[in-house]
Amino acid sequence: MDADTIVALSTPPGESGIAVIRISGARALSILNSLAPGFSDNVPRHIQKTVLVDRANEAIDDCMCVCMKGPDSYTGEDMVELSCHGSMQVVSDIIDEAVFLGARGAGAGEFTRRAFVNGKIDLSQAEAVADLISAETKLQRQVALEHLEGGLSRKVMAVEDRLLEQLALVEVSIDFAEEEIEAYAPESVRAEAVRIAEEVKELAESERAGRKLRAGIKVTILGPRNVGKSMLYNGLLGEERAIVSAHPGTTRDLLRERIHIGGFTFFLEDTAGIAETGCEIEAKGISLGRRSAEMADLVLFVLDGSGELPGDAAAEIERIGPGRTLCVLNKSDLGLKLNPESVAGELGVSGSVSISALTGEGLDGLKERIYEKGVSRETAAISRERIAVNARQAVAFRDALGALERLQKLLGENAPAEIVSMEIRAAADACGSVTGRNVTGGLLDLIFGRFCIGK
Amino acid sequence: MFIKKNGNHDYEVAVIGGGHAGCEAALVSSRMGYRTVLVTIGLHDIARMPCNPAIGGLAKGQLVREIDALGGEMGICIDETGIQFRMLNRAKGPAVWSPRAQADKSGYHRRMLEALRTGDRLDLLEGEVTGLVVERGCVAGINTAGGNRITACKVILALGTFPNGLMHIGEESFPGGREGEPPSGLLSDQIAELGIERKRLKTGTPARLGRGSIDFSRCVEQRGDEEPSPFSFRTERIEQDQVSCYITYTNEGTHEIIRSSLDRSPLYAGRIKGIGPRYCPSIEDKVVRFPDRGRHQLFLEPEGLETDEIYINGLSTSLPRDVQERMIRSVKSLESARIIRHGYAIEYDFFPPHQIYPTYESRAIGGLYFAGQVNGTSGYEEAAAQGLMAGINACLAIKGERPFVLGRHEAYIGVLTDDLITKDIDEPYRMFTSRAEHRLLLRQDNADERLMKYGVRFGLQPKRAWEEVVERRKKVSRAHRRLAKERVPAAASNKILGSCGEKKTEAPQQAAKLLQRPRVNIDALEGALPGGGLGLGRRERESLEIRVKYEGYIRRQRNLADRVVRLDRMRIPRDFDFDISSLSSEAREKLKLHRPVTLGQASRISGVRTSDISVLMVFVEREKRKGESLRG
Q1: SS in 3 state form for chain A?
Q2: ipTM computed for the complex
Q3: Mind telling me how many Å the CA of A204 is from chain B's nearest CA?
Q4: How much is the pTM?
C-alpha cells in the first residue's frame, strides 16, 4: 500500500550517546547496502558493526546495523535499524544520504501507522495509533514552529511568493492567450530565477553552515606578552588549565579546550604572547598562535588596558582581519588608561570589551560578545533560525534549486511556456513542502487580482 | 407519447432541463440502453447558448475533445454547425493547444434537437417540472405543471440558471431564467426543503447588436484557421465556409460614461448579492479595478449565419439600458450601432457540489443527480461534461455496476469532478489548463488515447474506434524507437539545423535528439532519415513529434501522477464516521462537510493536513479489516 521508503531518527533529537535511525519500505535493504558497503549477506536480525559512507565514499560513522525482512518486522515491511553515534551532525548526514538514495523523511507516526495498516498491530489499538500520530504531529509542529518562526519561514514564503509571481506571468500567457496581455519576457523571468536561485542556494547551504556551527566555533586568544591571556583563558574555562605567572612568555604551546555558551560549542585556544624574541621555542609558539588566529572564526585580541596601546597592535590586527577580531582590554582592576571605544575605533575592530581576568569582572559580558560574534559572524548572515534548516528541508531546497537551474536553461533556449511553468511549479512546490503551504493553490487568485481578464 | 413502460416506472432515467448538460445526459442514458425522458420548458430551449456564441477555447476545447472520446455529442454537433474554427495557443507547445469554434447558435440548437429526436428510447417532453417525487430517501419520479406524475428510477437535474433566476438591467430587476424566459422556483425550493444547501451565484452577458449597424471596415478582422481542426475524432474534415470575427476597443470616453453611471449599476449599488466570476468581469468591473487601462479589447462575434445578431465579447454589463447605448456608441465602429438586446446580469440558485458524490449523485437523495450550473459551474463545455458523467453513472447504478469516476491525471473531466467535490465553490467554476497539475498528459490530441476505451466499454463508441487508436499508438511507438536508434549524418543534420535556424553540429546526430531542438519539426527531419520516410499519417506524425519533444517531461508528470493515484485508490466507506478525535478540528469539520470517498480526495480538501490523512488511513484500515473479519 505504501510504495515509498521512509527514514527517521527514532531516538529523541539532540546530542546523546547513541542515536537510532530506522528505514522502512521496499528500498530499505538496497539503501543499507549502498550506505554500508561492508554490510554482508543481508541476514535478518544479525547485528553487524560496519562503516557508513556517503555518496563520495567518505566515512560518516561507525555504526551497528541490523536488517529485518518484511513481514517479520515492526512495520511489516523490510526494515533497517542503524545505531550510530548520537551527534546531530552524524544523524543528519546519515538521513541525508538515505534520502539521496531514495528514501523520504517519515511523517508523524508513520512507522506505527504502517505497522497498523500492515496488520502488525491489533485492531483495538487504532485509537492509540491515531493519538500517537497526532501527538507526534503536535510535537513536530512545535519544533517546526520554533524553528520556522521569524527568519526562515518569512524568507521561504517570500521566495514562494516571488516564484508564484513568475508562475502567474507564464500561466496567464497560456490560459488567457486571447486576452490583451503582454507576453512574459523570458529574459526577465530568467533574471528573477537567477536571483531566487541565489536565495534558495543560501538556504540550502545554511544547513551545512549550521552543521559547522554545531560542530564548534573556533576562538583564538592572541595578544602581546604578559597582558593576561592565559588568565583570561582560565577565567573563560572556569578552571586552572593554563599555567599563569607574572613571567612574560610563560605560555609557549598552543592550548585548546572546549566551552559551551548558549548551547553552542566553542573551541578556545590560548597562544604564546607576541614579541620580538631570540628564543627559537618561543618564536615557534608565536607562529603557531598566529596560524591559529588565521584559522579562527573569532580572535580575542588581548591588551593591557592599564597600559599604553602598543605601536604594533594595529599592524597585527590588520594581518588577522579586524572584522573578526574582538579587542579585550584586561586588567580593569588596575584602572583603565585605554578607552574601549576609542581603541575599537583606532584599530578598526568589530568591538572592544574591558575585563578583569583576575577578579572575573566583565567575563560574562565577554562571553555574550563571543557568542554574538561567533555565532552570527562565522557565516555572516546565519541567524539562529537558519541553523534550523535540517537535512529534510535542505533536500527540499536542493530540489528547488535543481528546478531553478533547469528553468534558467529552458528560458535561455526559448522553451515553450508549459515546460517553463512546470519547473517554476516544481521549485514552488519544493519550497512549499518546507512551509506546508500549497503555493500553487493561490495561482488563480493572483492571476485574477493582477491581470485584467475577461473576454 | 410514452413508450413502453419498464417495470413500475415510466422511464428509467428522467432528465430535467434541455441545456448542454441535459442533452448529453439524455443522449448517453438512452444510448446505454435505458428508456429516457428529457423534460424541458420548451423544445426551442434545447442546447441554447445564452451567452457567447462559441464552443471550446482554452481548457474548454480539451473538455469537448474528451466528451467526444467518451461518446458525447457536443464535438460532432459543433463540427457540423461551427462557422469559424481556430486552434488557440498554436504559438505554444501542443500540450496547451485548444480548439475553439464560433457556433451558429440556431444551427447548433437544431442539430442537437435532431439528435435527441432521432435517438432510440428517448422521449422529449415540454413542460415545467414542479417537484420531485421522493420515497424513503430516494427519488422516484417528477411532477409536472399539468399535475402529471412521471415515475423514473433516476432523475438528473440540469436546470441551468433557471432556479429562482433574477435578472438585472440597471435599476430594473425582474425574475427570469434568461432573456425572455420565466424562471422556475418551485423545484429549487423543494430541493432546499429536502435538506440540500442552496446558495446564489451571478453571471452576466453583453448586449447584442445589429450586424448592418456596425462599421466593420474600421475593426481588425480575425479569420479562422486555413485548415480547420475538427473537435470530434469522428469528423474527417470541416467542409463549411468560415466567417470572420472583428476586434475593436473601448476608449477613455467609454470608461468615463461607465464611471459616471456606477451609482445606477445594480452591482455597485449593492442590489446584486450573488458572486460573479472573477475571470469574466463586467466592463464596469474592469474599468473600476483597472483604472490605468486606457482601453479594453472587444470581439464582435456573429451569433449565426441566418441571424443579424452580433455578440460583443468583453462588454458584459448590467448597467441601465440608456448607459449601455451611450457606452456602446462611444466605441470606434459602433457609433451608430443598433442594440437588439441589452446586456444583463442574472442571479440564480446553485447547490454547492460538496453535496454530491464524484458520480454526481446527491448524497442526500438517492438516485438524484446534479449536473451543470446547479453545481456552480459556468460554461457550456463544463455543463456538457457533467451531464455526460451524470448520465453514465445513473445508467451504471441501474445496472448495478461500479461507478465511473475519472482521475485528475486522466482527464480535464476528472479535474472538474474532483475540484467540484473537494473545493469550496464561491464563484462560478470555469476550467483552466492551470487547474490540471498533469497538463502535459491531458492534451487535446490524445483525448482518444486516454478515454475512448471507456466509450467502448459503455457501448458509446464502436469497438473499431479504440482498435484504431491502439493500432495508431503502436505505429507511433515503432517510429519512436526508430528515431531513437537512427543517426542522421552530419551534413544532412546541418541542412536541417540550418534551415530551422538552429546551431550546427560536427557529428552525426541521433534523429530523436534533432527533433528535440525547439525549431526542428518532423517534416524537416523526415526527409533526412537514412532509413527513408516514416510512413505515418498526419495525426500519427503529430503525436510522434509531441512524444519526442516532451520526452522526459511527460515521464516526470506520469511519475507524479502515479503517486497521487495511490491515495486515490484508497476508498473511504460511504458511511464512514469522520468524528475522530485525533483529527485536527479544522480537518474534521471539512471532512464532515465534503465527505470524500477516497483518501486522495480527502488530501485535496483545504485544511486537511498530511497527518490527518495518516489518521484517516488507520481508521479506514480498521473499517476494512472489521468488514473482512465479519465476512471471513
Answers
A1: CCCCEEEEECCCCCCCCEEEEEEECCCHHHHHHHHCCCCCCCCCCCCEEEEEECCCCCEEEEEEEEEECCCCCCCCCCEEEEEEECCHHHHHHHHHHHHHCCEEECCCCHHHHHHHHCCCCCHHHHHHHHHHHHHHHHHHHHHHHHHHCCHHHHHHHHHHHHHHHHHHHHHHHHHCCCCCCCCCCHHHHHHHHHHHHHHHHHHHHHHHHHHHHHHCEEEEEECECCCCHHHHHHHHHCCCCCCCCCCCCCCCCCEEEEEEECCEEEEEEECCCECCCCCHHHHHHHHHHHHHHHHCCEEEEEEECCCCCCCCHHHHHHHHCHHHEEEEEECHHHCCCCCHHHHHHHHCCCCEEECCCCCCCCHHHHHHHHHHHHHHHHCCCCCHHHHCCCHHHHHHHHHHHHHHHHHHHHHHCCCCHHHHHHHHHHHHHHHHHHHCCCHHHHHHHHHHHHCCCCC
A2: 0.89
A3: 23
A4: 0.80
